[in-house]
Amino acid sequence: MAKQKVIAKVARQEQIAAGIFDMWIETALAQDAKPGQFISVYPKDKSTLLPRPISICEVNEDKTMLRIVYRVAGKGTAEFSAYTAGDDIAILGTLGNGFPLDAAKGKRVFLMGGGIGIPPMLELAKQLKKQYDVESRIVVGYRDNQTFLADDLAKYGSVYIASEDGSVGSKGNVMNAIEENNLSADIIMACGPMPMLRAIKQYAEANNMTAYISLEERMACGVGACLGCVVKTKEVDHHSHVHNARICTDGPVYDAKEVEI
Amino acid sequence: MNTTVNIAGVTFKNPVMTASGTFGSGMEYSEFVDLNRLGGVVTKGVANVPWPGNPTPRVAETYGGMLNAIGLQNPGIDVFMERDLAFLKDYDTNVIVNVCGKSVEDYLEVVERLADANNVAMLEINVSCPNVKEGAIAFGQKADALFDITSRIKKVAKQPVIMKLSPNVTDITEMAKAAEAAGADCVSLINTITGMKIDINRKTFALANKTGGLSGPAIKPVAVRMVYQVAQAVNIPIIGMGGIATAEDAIEFILAGASAISVGAMNFVNPYATIEIVEGIETYMKAQGVDDINDLIGAVK
Questions:
Q1: Within this chain, do residues A61 and A132 fall inside the same structural domain, yes or no?
Q2: Contact B122, B156 (CB under 8 A)
Q3: Is the CB of residue A242 less than 8 Å from the CB of residue B73?
Q4: Residues A81 and A141 grouped into a single domain
Q5: Which end of chain A is more exposed for a tag (fewer CB within 10 A), N or C?
Q6: Residue A37 sits in the same domain as residue A110
C-alpha cells in the first residue's frame, strides 16, 4: 500500500505508566505495517503543525488496528493522550524501512529497548517468533519500576530488565543487564536513546556482531522530501550523495556499522 | 473557465506550484498527488557540487509554523540531472529548477549545465537562503550585489530567470527593482524569515545552526504584504509564497499581485495541499463568477 494520510479512529486508549500512553487505532494502514516502521500523527491544534513520528508497537491479528505506545513530551502528544475511543486521529503511514526480520533467521537474537524505544520491540518479537520461530532475548531498560509492556514482551521471548534506579532487575541500563545475566547472542535489534545506541554499536563492534538500530531525529515531512532528519553515514548515501541518509525513509533502522552516531 | 497563467512566455495550466525545498523533486510526493495536475514543480536547490548541509537538529516547530536550517543539502547537478530531471520528464508540468551557490561562478556553472536540459521551463535563483554561511543570501540582501549576479546569470541562462527574494531586508521593493533592472524575468517571494527558538529546559538552541528560516501559516500576512508592495514596484510577474495552506490563502496572494503561488511548509502538514488548492481555486472562481484567473491578479481594491 502506498503511503497515505488518513483520518483513522481511536479504538481505545489507556495510560500504562507515568506519562506513557497505550493507544489502539483502527486503520487500513495496519495491513502492511512491519516491525520497526512508524506512523506520523498530526495534532488537531493548528498551532502545532508538524506530525509526530511514533513507532508501531503492535498490529492486531486481523491487521485492522495499530497500537502505539508513546510518552507525552509536549503539546502534540499531550493532545493525543486526551483522545478516547471513537475519536478521529489523523495519521500518515506506514513510514520507514523496519527491521530486517530475515537477518535473525536461525540466530540467537537480542532485542534491546530503552525507555520509549521499547514499544517497537513488541511487534518485532512477535513476528520473529511467528515467522522464524525465534525466541528472542529481550533486554529492556526502564527509569524505574514502571515496566510497561514487559508482560506483553514475555509472550515472545525471555525478558531481562534493567532500571536506572535499581528498583527492578539490574541496576543501570541494558548493557548492565546483559553483563549481570551473562547473556550472549549472534545479532542485535535495538531502539532507544542515543547513548544506549552508541553503547550497543560499540558492543557489537567489540564482539563482531551485527546490530540493527532504530534512530530518531526531529522530522518535518516524514516522507523523505525535506531532508530534516538525517544521520551521518559511513558510505555516501544513495539519495543526496553526501554521507547524510534520511532517517524517515532510508531508516529509521540501520546496520550500526553504517551510521556515525 | 481559464486557470492558465503566463509567466515570461511559459504557460502554466494553473497557478499552483511547490516551494523549493519542501517537495524534493516531486518523487516523494508523487505517492500522494498527481504531479500532472500542478502548474509547476519547483525543485530543491541544486549546486554545482554536492552539499552536505547543516548538522541536526535541522527543524523545529514554532507556533503556527516551523524553523528549518537544512543548509541546502543537495546531491549536486550531475546526480540531479541524471535522476531528478529524468524522473520529471514523464510528467506534464513545468519544471522550475532552484539553483544555489556559494560564489557567482557556482551559480553560473549550474545555469550553464541546465542550458541544454529540454524539460526545464524556468530557473529560480536562490539568493535568499538564510541557512548557509557563504554566498546565497549575501547576494540577496544588497541591491547592487543582486543586480550584479542577476545580470551575469541572465547572460548565460537559456531559460527565463526567477530571482527568489529574501524578506530579511529593510525594503524588499529595492531588491525587486534591482532584479528587474538587471533583466530578471520574474521574482518569487518570500523565502523564509530568519528566526530562532530556544529550548528552555536544556538551555540550548532548538536548531544546531542556532538560527533557521521561519515558514508556515505564521508568516503569511508578512508575505502577502511584501507581494503587494513588490507588485506596486515592478512590472515583471511575481510568484507568491509564504504560509499558503488553502485556496483562500492562494487567492489572497493572487489578489495582492502574484501571477502564481507556491505551497511550501504546508506540504508537510497536508501532503494533498497542492491539489486541494488547485480545486479550491476553481471553486472560488465559480462562486465569484470569475471566468479568467488573470482577472484576479493584482485585483485587490
A1: no
A2: no
A3: yes
A4: no
A5: N
A6: no
- Residue A242 inside a domain? The answer is no
Question: Is B283 a member of any domain?
Answer: yes
Task: Mark whether A117 and A19 lie in a shared domain.
Answer: no
Taking alpha carbons only, the member of B77, B59, B56 closest to residue B68 is B59
Residue A47: which of B32, B50, B63 has the nearest Cβ?
B63
- State how many domains chain A has: 2
- Tell whether B210 is covered by a domain: no
Residue written as cell 515558514?
A: B215
Q: What is the pLDDT of residue B135?
A: 60
Q: What is the residue range of A118's domain? A: 101-214
Check whether residue A68 and residue A106 sit in a common domain.
no
pLDDT of residue B202: 94
- pLDDT value for B138: 75
Which among A96, A100, A95 is positioned nearest to A210, based on CA atoms? A100
> What is the C-alpha to C-alpha distance for residues A183 and A110, in angstroms, rounded to an integer?
9
The number of distinct structural domains making up chain B is 1
DSSP string, B205-243: ESSTTSEEEEESGGGHHHHHHHHHHHHHH-SS-EEEESS
Residue B186: active-site member: no
pTM beyond 0.90: the answer is yes
Task: Give SS3 for A203.
Answer: helix
From the list B24, B70, B75, which residue is nearest A228 (CB)?
Answer: B70
- Tell if the CB–CB gap between B59 and A220 is shorter than 8 Å: yes
- Split at pLDDT 50, 70, 90, the class of B252 is very high
- pLDDT, one tens digit per residue, over A141-193 is 999 999 999 999 999 999 999 999 999 999 999 999 999 999 999 999 999 99
Q: Indicate which residue of B129, B230, B247, B277 is catalytic.
A: B129
Rounded to an integer, the average pLDDT of B50-78 is 97
Tell me the nearest-neighbour CA distance from A39 into chain B, angstroms.
14
User: Is the same domain home to A117 and A89?
Assistant: no
- B212 interface with A at CB cutoff 8 Å: no
